[in-house]
Design goal:
This protein has helices at 46-52, 58-63, 65-69, 75-97, 100-103, 107-110, 112-115, 121-151, 155-172, 174-202, 213-229, 248-276, 282-291, 296-326, 337-355, 362-387, 406-422, 431-435, 443-459, and strands spanning 10-12, 469-471. By secondary structure, it is mainly α. The protein has a domain at 38-363: Orthogonal Bundle (Hydantoin permease), CATH 1.10.4160.10. The chain is globular.
Length: 474
């Protein structure tokens, strides 16, 4: 990023305290502060398994079960929607991750640049809830059901095991998370590849006859985009320890590929599995339906992978949910802040997961809701990125006097309009969709475009500095 000519204000950075470096078995000090340059380490290739492992779980398989079971898609329609929706979410994920090494702070701290210190409460608060609580509950259910089927332990005991593992990994922090995702990657990959070989051999793609046309296609596109883009608000959380001069292209490519490959393979596998064993049983215990297509040794291995995959995903959800909570501006003790938030999020997520153990159908609406707020948020972020190009903006990250209105107003207006007019869920239909069901669900597309356009219009009318440099104390 270039620096504009002329003097710019300087805001001191809040630098992460403590020594950490590349130690793995150590509790990460601090919270969402700037990472000192002498603590930077890591390489872009690590992002591939960091973003592949969390998607090698049953929640990914279940995404496109909805496309055929609820959205009336043929197998090939669903496959096309999977590729397009996932590609969009993966592309934005890779691009966002390239800013982590430059700014040295989590993604939702960076969100303060367009949204301001107080306005950032809107996206950071939403992400803290959807990541640290919502996704935590969804994935805990699938992990618990898999562990229960594998060990025959009571579901309550399995849920406690899964939740505790997730909280411990998240609390240890950045380096341990990266290492955990790398270690479990081979097991998860082998298990799901073996399982999908048996699924493909028993699938009947032609059995999915479709019937909802473009409307169902757009619903599937929204769900698959929402699933991939659900990781976008975390992107820089796992690149902020890279050195500032790291290869940006490699950073973007490996992060995007990790999301894209894992989601596309398992989502297509889910569509194939439903054509082999269709029925409403998928919505009460889909893990059993999925593994019923495999011989017992492979089924057991896949059940183990589902449980570990859920832990892999939720460790990231808790960690990044905590980063988002800290981006709200709370000043807690450095030694206690992440522990307190992780435990609180874990407790709330535990309760939600407990109430959903026998009803995975709640997952359907949650997938679409994800895209509703992330679309407008992305529109604002990318529009601001373009409008402030070639300007020094890192000083806005910790300036509590930086409170422009364009960001949060654009996101709020675009999100509200897109939901009221174009949302299409079983429990709510937007006003235009009611009369034109062929529109499917284009709330995320409308939200993105409208938020970007509104922000571009309001950006020049708000009283806000274009530049602000970050001062790093010596």
């Amino acid at each position: 990023m270039a620096t504009s000519t002329g003097p710019t204000p300087s805001i001191p950075a809040r630098i992460r305290e403590g020594e950490y470096g590349d130690r793995v078995v150590a509790v990460e000090p601090g919270g969402a502060e700037f990472i000192p340059l002498d603590e930077r380490h890591g390489r872009p290739l690590s992002l591939f398994w960091t973003w592949t492992s969390p998607n090698l779980e049953f929640a990914t398989v279940f995404v496109v079960v909805l496309a055929i079971a609820a959205f009336g898609q043929t197998f090939w329609q669903a496959t096309l929607a999977i590729v397009l929706g996932t590609a969009l979410g993966s592309l934005s994920h890779g691009l966002l991750g390239t800013r982590g090494p430059f700014f040295g702070v989590p993604q939702m701290i960076q969100s303060r640049i367009p949204f301001g210190f107080r306005g950032n409460i809107l996206p950071a608060g939403l992400n803290a809830v959807t990541a640290g609580i919502g996704w935590f509950a969804v994935n805990s259910v699938s992990g618990t059901l898999a562990l229960n089927a594998l060990t025959s332990l009571p579901k309550g005991v399995c849920l406690v095991i899964v939740v505790l593992a997730q909280i411990v990994i998240a609390y240890l922090g950045h380096n341990f998370l990266h290492a955990f995702e790398r270690i479990v990657f081979p097991l998860l990959a082998v298990a799901f590849v073996l399982g999908l070989i048996y699924v493909a051999s028993k699938a009947h793609p032609s059995a999915a006859t479709g019937g909802q046309g473009i409307g169902g296609f757009l619903l599937t596109l929204g769900a698959t985009f929402g699933y991939a883009a659900g990781w976008n608000p975390y992107a820089s959380d796992y690149t902020r320890y890279f050195k500032p001069d790291v290869d940006k292209r490699a950073t973007a490519v490996w992060a995007a590929l990790g999301v894209f490959v894992s989601c596309v393979v398992l989502e297509i596998g889910g569509a194939l599995a439903f054509t082999a064993v269709p029925g409403d049983a998928w919505f009460s215990n889909g893990t059993s339906q999925f593994t019923s297509l495999m011989p017992t040794p492979v089924a057991d291995l896949v059940l183990l992978a589902i449980a570990i995959g859920a832990i892999s995903a939720n460790a990231i959800n808790i960690y990044s949910g905590t980063m988002s909570f800290l981006a709200l501006g709370f000043r807690l003790s450095l030694t206690l802040r992440r522990a307190i938030v992780a435990i609180v999020f874990g407790a709330i997520g535990f309760v939600l997961a407990w109430t959903s153990l026998d009803d995975q159908s709640k997952y359907e609406n949650f997938l679409l809701v994800i895209a509703y707020w992330i679309g407008p948020w992305l529109g604002v972020v990318f529009a601001d990125w373009y409008l402030r190009r070639q300007h020094r903006v890192d000083g806005f990250l910790f300036d509590n006097a930086h409170n422009p209105f364009a960001g949060w107003v654009s996101m709020l207006v675009a999100g509200t309009v897109s939901i009221l007019l174009f949302a299409n869920q079983l429990k709510f239909q937007g006003y235009l969709v009611r009369d034109h069901p062929a529109l499917g669900d284009i709330a995320f597309e409308v939200g993105f475009v409208l938020a970007a356009a509104l922000y571009a219009l309001l950006f020049s009318r708000q009283r806000d500095r274009t530049d602000e440099a970050l001062a790093i104390p010596g």
